[in-house]
Design goal:
The chain has helices at 28-38, 62-73, 109-112, 116-124, 141-147, 154-159, 190-200, 211-227, 246-253, 260-270; strands spanning 7-13, 52-56, 76-90, 97-99, 114-115, 127-139, 165-171, 208-209, 231-233, 243-244. It is of the alpha/beta class and 278 residues long. The chain has one domain (3-270): Rossmann fold (3-Layer(aba) Sandwich), CATH 3.40.50.1460. Strands 1, 2, 3, 4, 5, 6, 7 and 9 form an 8-stranded mixed sheet that branches. The longest helix is centred in the last third of the chain and has 17 residues, at 211-227. It is globular.
């Protein structure tokens, strides 16, 4: 097949280390690996499997991350999906966002980080018919309050994104009373919910589903703890970026006599796939 039909996936789970003031990203690399392992096999028909996937190391510098996005965006393809997992910080004027990278401190986190604007600009000016930015992130209280204010600032980056945006942004709240916090890429996270649903499917939905179709099921997977106090963002319905729904295939095959060999194949298709090497 020609390159114009290919799908490009760039997954970035940035872990910023032991800086207590920048906590919340310890499982970002784990979640990135899960997404990189599950999404390439989930594209619906018309896209060569497994497509082109880049899993950026969790301790990479911002320039390495941006280069991965720019190189993927510079290729022609059917669609480009970029995933950002970790902690977001804002510039001193609370107008722009950046993903915190390894080795950062509270004082230099924004300057060293991967600027949100850079990622979006690369995607907008790329060679793909459609794009999607998937985000699973936490922010501090000051940034969270800025996200809730109208009239510009970081809230506009989410409310009026120049690329379709799908994900969860929440204030960082450390676990207490024996309950762990929901961290990007960790247990109960948005990324983990997406992976589970693209692998298992959603009964009652068609064989090809958009992120907007999957979103209610993702919210259900997160549960009340994962949704409460968080900002959930979802792209508009429609578009040609579609994912397979394994549950629809299983529903069509229910009641049909299947050989043991075919059942084994279907079982392997639904089983978790290993992420590609970095």
């Amino acid at each position: 097949m020609g390159g114009s039909l290919a799908a490009d996936l760039v997954v970035i789970g940035a872990e910023c280390g032991n800086e207590r003031a920048l906590a919340g990203s310890a499982d970002a690399g784990r979640g990135a690996g899960l997404l990189a392992g599950a999404l390439p096999g989930a594209w619906y028909d018309g896209v060569p499997e497994p497509g082109r996937t880049v899993l950026v190391p969790p301790d990479a510098e911002a320039n390495t991350m941006l280069t991965a996005v720019q190189e993927a965006a510079g290729r022609e393809g059917r669609f480009l999906v970029v995933c950002l997992l970790g902690r977001l910080v804002a510039d001193p004027r609370l107008r722009r966002l950046a993903l915190v990278t390894a080795g950062s401190t509270r004082e230099n986190a924004y300057r060293r980080g991967l600027a949100w604007d850079w990622v979006v600009s690369a995607m907008v000016h790329g060679g793909h018919a459609e794009t999607l930015l998937l985000v699973d992130a936490v922010v501090d209280r000051e940034v969270w309050e800025a996200l809730g204010r109208e009239g510009g600032g970081p809230a506009e980056l989410l409310d009026h994104s120049r690329v379709p945006l799908w994900g969860r942004v929440a204030p960082w709240v450390p676990g207490r009373r024996g309950r762990g916090a929901t961290v990007p890429g960790g247990d109960g996270s948005f990324a983990e919910a997406v992976v589970r649903l693209v692998q298992q499917g959603v009964p009652g939905l068609p064989a090809a589903v958009s992120p907007a179709d999957l979103h209610p099921a993702v919210c259900e997977q997160l549960g009340a703890q994962g949704r409460t106090g968080a900002r959930m963002v979802v792209p508009s319905a429609g578009g040609r970026l579609l994912l397979r729904n394994p549950a629809a295939l299983r529903g069509k095959l229910s009641g049909m006599p299947l050989s043991g060999e075919l059942l084994a194949v279907l079982g392997r298709k639904d089983s978790p796939s290993r992420p590609p090497s970095a």
